[in-house]
Design goal:
Layout: E1 3-7, E2 10-14, H1 21-29, H2 40-46, H3 60-68, H4 74-85, H5 97-102, H6 112-120, H7 130-138, H8 143-165
Antiparallel strand pairs: 1-2
């Protein structure tokens, strides 16, 4: 099995052989399978949602939990985090890592949109530009949930009715989904 070995002054890092790749992956991410003995490495690499703040500080997901639990002062903190973190690249491949890993295991090349479409399914109902989303939805308590409920209950008609009840203009502030030509 590959791993880190410390002998003498400098550590030696052994890369896994193709047959060891599955075991290596399980070692790094075993925190998720409930059999963790030394799960800190896997959590450090991939589970920022499990980290806790130090001293009096809190990590973003601790603030989110507080907001979800009804702590009133955590709601604007979480919204501020959402606003500030929007579009920030949080996870990415380091230089050459994708190619190295691709030589060991088969990689999933789907885009985020493809994964979401496969996981969530359904058809898009409207296009909400970022400016509208942040100015008229996120910063108004309960609007994102109302929008979700309207979409689930009545589809695009419900979304349009709700959007217009907020004083927004359909076709300007919120756009209908573009027509996709059949293949």
């Amino acid at each position: 099995m590959a791993g880190l070995q410390v002998s003498g002054r400098y550590p030696r890092v052994d890369l896994p052989k193709p047959g060891d790749a599955k075991q290596f992956g399980r070692y790094l991410f075993k925190n998720q399978d409930g059999k963790a003995r030394f799960s800190k490495l896997g959590a450090e690499l991939a589970r920022g949602d499990l980290k806790q703040g130090r001293s009096n500080g809190r990590m973003p997901f601790e603030v989110a939990q507080g907001a979800a639990d009804g702590i009133a002062e955590d709601v604007p903190l979480w919204r501020e985090y959402e606003y500030g973190a929007h579009g920030v690249r949080a996870m990415y491949w380091s230089n050459g890592m994708r190619a190295k890993l691709g030589a060991l295991v088969e990689l999933d090349d789907r885009t985020d949109e493809e994964v979401a479409a496969e996981t969530v399914g359904g058809d898009p109902l409207a296009v909400i530009p970022a400016e509208t989303w942040y100015r008229h939805v996120v910063w108004h308590r309960g609007r994102s949930l109302s929008l979700l409920r309207a979409a689930e209950a009545l589809g695009s008609v419900g979304v349009r009715t709700l959007i217009e009840s907020w004083g927004l203009e359909w076709g300007t502030d919120v756009l209908p989904t573009p027509e996709v030509a059949p293949v």
